[in-house]
Write a structure and sequence with these properties.
A hairpin with a 6-residue loop joins strand 2 (107-112) and strand 3 (119-125). The chain starts with 13 loop residues before the first helix and ends in a 16-residue tail after the last strand. The chain has 6 helices and 4 strands. It has helices spanning 14-25, 31-38, 42-54, 67-74, 91-103, 128-140; strands at residues 78-86, 107-112, 119-125, 145-152. By secondary structure, it is α+β, with helices and mostly antiparallel strands. The chain folds into 2 domains: 10-54, Arc Repressor Mutant, subunit A (Orthogonal Bundle); 67-152, Lrp/AsnC effector binding domain/regulation of amino acid metabolism (RAM) domain (Alpha-Beta Plaits), CATH 3.30.70.920.
């Protein structure tokens, strides 16, 4: 890691790491409060935050909604973790399936994995009929899908978005 005076694109110093840790814990914190926690000036804090965004250290800032509350409000709610094995695993085949999967709003996460299945999907639908419709569009109509194994969530014990960072 470099000191602040040695900052160049795509490097982080201790203050940057602290800033990232604070923002990933609570992105709604205002700049003045953030600067105070980092013991730097508000303009410096804002400049650092903007740089981290421009250099794509921060991909985006979002509100994480309560799946349980929304499920109770909007209807049942169904989370599935799906293993997908393709018949042909060439890059173009993997990319074609991936492209279709990420276009689906119900697909929250899409991971290429190895060994085992080719992809893991985390899917959120309102109910089983919506899940069935998704699988018909995404899995059944694709001649390259060889095998599908789905797991349905009965309880979420932990859900996190924070990446582990060194502490100072």
């Amino acid at each position: 890691m470099r000191t602040p005076s040695e900052h160049s694109e795509n490097t982080l110093d201790a203050t940057d790491l602290k800033l990232l840790a604070l923002l990933q814990a609570d992105a709604s914190i205002n700049n003045v409060a953030l600067a105070k926690k980092l013991q730097i000036s508000a303009p410096t804090c804002l400049r650092r935050t903007k740089r981290l965004q421009q250099e794509a250290w921060i991909e985006k800032q979002v509100a994480i909604l309560s799946a349980d509350k929304l499920g109770r409000y909007l209807g049942h709610g169904l989370t599935a973790i799906i293993e997908v094995s393709l018949d042909k695993q060439g890059e173009e085949w993997l990319q074609a399936f991936e492209t279709r999967a990420v276009k689906e709003q119900a697909v929250q996460q899409c991971w290429r994995v190895s060994p085992g299945p080719d992809l893991i999907l985390v899917v959120q639908t309102t109910d089983m009929p919506a899940y069935l419709a998704l699988t018909q569009r995404l899995l059944t109509q694709d001649a390259n899908v060889r095998n599908v194994k789905a797991f349905f969530s009965v309880k979420r014990a932990k859900f996190g978005t924070e990446l582990p960072l060194p502490s100072f």
